Amino acid sequence: MAGAPVPVLLVTGFLGAGKTTVVNHLLAHAGGRRIAAVVNDFGAINIDAELIAGASDGVVSLANGCICCTLEGDLLRTLATLLRRDPRPEAILIETSGVADPADIVRNLMDPLILREAPLETVLCVVDAAAPPGTMEDPLLRAQLRLADVVALSKTDLADEAGCARIRAAVAALRPAATVIEAPQGEVPLLLVLPDDPARLPTPRNPARRDPGRSGPRAERFETLSWTAEAPLSIPLVQAAIGRLAPRLARAKGVFEAVQQPGRPLLFQLAGGRATLVPMGEGAVREGLPCARIVFIAEVGRISPEEIRAEMERSIAEPSDTRNAGTARGWSP
């Protein structure tokens, strides 16, 4: 694995904070640099890997587990494999699941062999600036913030001035050493989180030793429940089903084809009590995948697979159901 060190950028953040949007922006503005992306989704269906730009080229998917616990060995093997690529990547970006405690991941990255070849350059924590007031007290989010070098405030266009100020104050109190930036539409400058010269010595922000501290909340707090369908869905029926499920969900995301818009998949996301439904771009149709594939994340015991299945099966469209509900970016479930 000899060669110049390959810096690692670790992107963390709570469920629905906007990590994938940030990752897409960084990859789209890589300036020709070879950046390998490792994407971890907490569930059997890795929706995030589908949403990363160029998902078929240079993106490694780690699914059906959280890399802070059940996939530790997979992560280290994946990094070793990436470092053996020819040509070698110039940087490695790791997007964690929303239930990951970065302390455990940082501890894994301190493996001497990995540290020498792929030093951890930056821990970037994405925080939803429009999150409800109590969100900043969540122990998992606080664990993510405690190791952040850079904090990116996402969804600032949805937050009022007082809300942004409240989030900034909470971040400053918990992690005063972090650089805090606003990142509408995921706009994080690449040079802020990755060096322009990979061969340079570690900076004060990237010391040779990091102390990840004690482990925080584990992924056992949350569980994922996946649902798929082989037939298109009805947009208004999906909205109705999500409205009934939303109060007991921490997060939901997925892709489905709608009878109202045949041939063009829709991206569905539920985060922070806000649901969005937007058309996906060209090339979004994936051969061999179900028409609908949605992952639901909830605290353990809050909702059962049977309840989700019963609700979502009501959203499968009848052939005659072509009611035009539109595809508004957001609705209140």
Topology summary:
Layout: E1 8-13, H1 19-28, E2 35-40, H2 47-51, E3 59-62, H3 72-83, E4 91-95, H4 102-109, H5 112-117, E5 120-128, H6 139-146, E6 150-154, H7 161-174, E7 179-182, H8 190-193, E8 222-229, H9 235-245, E9 251-258, E10 261-271, E11 274-279, E12 292-299, H10 305-313, E13 330-331
Parallel strand pairs: 1-4, 1-5, 2-3, 2-4, 5-6, 6-7
Antiparallel strand pairs: 8-12, 9-10, 9-12, 10-11, 11-13
Function: Zinc chaperone that directly transfers zinc cofactor to target proteins, thereby activating them. Zinc is transferred from the CXCC motif in the GTPase domain to the zinc binding site in target proteins in a process requiring GTP hydrolysis.
Domain CobW C-terminal: 222-316
Region (Disordered): 199-219, 313-333
Outline, from the CA principal axes?
globular
* Main sheet specs: 7 strands, parallel
Count of beta strands = 13
Any idea of the CATH topology of the largest domain? Rossmann fold
Residues in β-strands, percent: 15-25%
Distance between the termini: 50 Å
Run of helices and strands: EHEHEHEHHEHEHEHEHEEEEHE
CATH class of the largest domain: Alpha Beta
Low-pLDDT regions:
53-57, 61-71, 198-204, 215-219
Rg over CA atoms: 20 Å
Query: What is the annotated CATH architecture of the largest domain?
Result: 3-Layer(aba) Sandwich
Strand order of the largest sheet: 3-2-4-1-5-6-7
Helix share of residues? Answer: 25-40%
What's the helix count? Answer: 10
**CATH level 4 superfamily of the largest domain:** P-loop containing nucleotide triphosphate hydrolases
Our count of domains comes out at 2
Class inferred from helices and paired strands:
alpha/beta
